Amino acid sequence: MTGPLLQIEDLHVTFSTRRGLVEAVRGVTLSLDQGEMLGLVGESGSGKSVTGFATTRLLDVAGRVTAGRILFRGQDITKIADSDFRVLHGAAMSMIFQNPRAALNPIRAVGLQIADAILSHKRMSKEDAAEEALKLLRAVQIRDPEKRMTAYPHELSGGMCQRVMIAIAISCNPMLLIADEPTTGLDVTTQKVVMDLLVRIAADRGMATILITHDLGLAARYCQRVVVMEQGRLVEEAAPQTLFRHPRHAYTRRLVAASPTATSRIADLVTDDERSHYLAMLAACKPRPAPAAGTPLLLDVKNLAKRYDQGPPAVADFSMAMAAGESVGLVGESGSGKTTTSRMICRLIDPSEGTILFDGESIGHLPARDFHRSPVRKDIQIVFQDPNESLNPRFTAFDCIAHPLLRLSGMRPGDVLRQRVEQCAQRVGLPAELLPRFPHQLSGGQKARVGIARAIACQPRLLVLDEPTAALDVSVQAVVLQLLDRLRREDDLALLFVSHDLNVVRMMCDRTIVLRNGCVVEQGESRALFDNPQTAYTRELVDAVPHIGGAPAAAAAQVTGPGVNNVRSL
Amino acid sequence: MSSLPALFGVLVFTFLLMRVLPGDPAVFFASGPNAGKEEIEVIRKQMGLDKPVPQQLLLYLYDVGRGNLGRSLMTGQAVTTDLRDRLPASLELTLTALLIALVSAIPLGVLAALKPGSVIDHGVRLFCALGVCVPTFVSGLLLIYVFYYLLGLAPDPTGRIDVFTSLPPSRTGFLTIDFLLAGDLDGWWAAFRQLILPAATMALFVIAPLARITRASMLVSLGSDFVRTARSVGLSWWRIVVTYALRNAILPVITIAGIVFSTMLGANVLVEKVYSWPGVASYALDALLSSDYAPVQGFVLLMASIFVVVNLLVDVLYGIADPRVSI
Q1: B93 and B175 together in one domain
Q2: Interface residues of chain B, partner chain A, Cβ below 8 Å
């Protein structure tokens, strides 16, 4: 066959919403050769996923391809009838989705689900299909494949669910695989394993792959060519190294700058033009005075443990200390107990054992249920992971920020409160005209600001941040991180930063604590710890983080194995 | 086991409620309106109504504990015997009605969900609204008028079987099943014809909640990620709708069906009255009207027990249908 496998020409996709027509994709043109791996990078709302769904015709009913052509093997597939498209689905092109657990039928054994996919395209007996499904489970390197055949998705981890999803997608050897954020929401180590697997399978079977992701590092590590999208348009296309070393388009420059790397500092997260502003602000902050001798530590946690009735303890023997104005990172994979620990420190759940001293005063013994009456509640505040879920949908932004002031600082509604709320909003960079809005009328970044403004409203001394930027785009994350760093300097605020994103923790935190299975594996000064990890586990974590600049050659060599070369020579 | 305290509470509450309600069974059951004071007093003593209420309660609880629900003054039989005679009639009616309701509601809900906003969707909505807003005695009489009086398709609405058909040996108490077991197809047809109109009347009333919940959960299912996955690998339409979407959507329907069943069993008194169906609900109503304590209390206890059993059954069914739930 000659010509590219997939050719998208001037694609326009429009969604009809309550507020009228919205153009999600406006004129995308790209092509993909057989066996090639293309990265489609952009932030939320850039139209990257919509492009993928338009190609596989899985758009919501509200979405429609309004113009342009999608040529697959030379045939315009926008003109094919739905009933004929079913032949292509799975057999010629398939998809892998973002949330693997939701993407699998919760009440059907995974072996049957794989067999379903096989049986929809091949004539064979159920037994043969089951045999084939087992082979696929082996191919995606799932442990105990025989046992997993009868497992349900809820019995599998996120990484295993994604392997099953890959098995389903490749079951009929499609020529094109579109992976829509396949590893978002997975731990870094799992992400690496799943991506390596995906790339190897694609290479072995000569499948062309489109990797849709918001993570530049991930695209740089695995793709031969990267396309950047912004607001439904394609802004730049190049080999990853060229793109990230010498971005031409302004948007790409901003995106590259905002992506944290192994060496970046917080000031680096914006483009050169915008940096001076931030640096000026930093200079304006007066240096922290050294604490007077004999001042107790702000937070002193000793031998903290949390046990539930069944299973191993969620946290066992956790100790740490931090001074005022210090920032400490708490990292680890999901299930490592980092969130449990942070919740115990904010006194949202009760520890089973151990002491928590805040400013020399023991607060660990106060039951979490009554802690809101303690005067210390004001001093320890929390910013939650999901800015969408952690705001009351019936509260305006103003109400959200005013709530802790009313409850904890004993303020009364009136002008003083209004001024105070506006002041908080201004400090986090939230325009005052957004205050009367409800959460659903705000963007993700704006909601994150409301969450931070709410947390700093009572002027706490310790702010616990539970993955505060996990749900945000990189450019928004950059701004939020700078904001947090500024607040820390201005108010001498201590930050306990819970995150799985090592690059972010490295930038934000003076010290880092690595947790695994509820135990502290390693702790120390952040840069030293990440540059020279002492334990195998930390090293594994650090190695798994995809970097834009870091050692792409090795990864590429490993990826561009014989399979890809073969395909190339076809 | 955990439902025992609830059953006990129901028992005591009903007992006290009956005592509070106006009406004196002794007066009611005295030989006639002219019965003298002494005669009433004698009856009262016989029934134990002269004792203080707490003592009556204790005696009653003691009897219930030994399986004795008391004696009905209306029928002169033990309440347990009366209930045992009538319960199968009610159960047969209610189960048939539930079956009719499910068999029609689920496809209606699925059809409505497949094409939301279409003519079918609106038609189903209209049908459901009519079913809910027309009271059962009106729809019952309407059905009788049309199918018995106008068309003559249905037999006269008097009980479970016409007087000329000989009854089969009672094994399950469900006439349709007993006839089948006895191999008497004519008898089965006669019983079935008697059953179908009252069952349809009851079903009409509960199709609406079942169809609506099917539609709602089917819409959620169809919009879910795993249905998108199923489409992405090209599964057939039937497999996507039935195996993937409907099986997930059926879970809340099971819960609602359990609730609906319990409600129907207790609330079908109007249908039983309209069709002269010899069930427990009309029995309890008659007892209540004549201040006959024991049957009413027995009936409430029976309903509460059935409610507990049905809930247990729903939990078990749910556990089978959804591997995420462990019982």
Answers
A1: yes
A2: 224-226, 228-236, 239, 243-244, 247-248, 251, 321-324
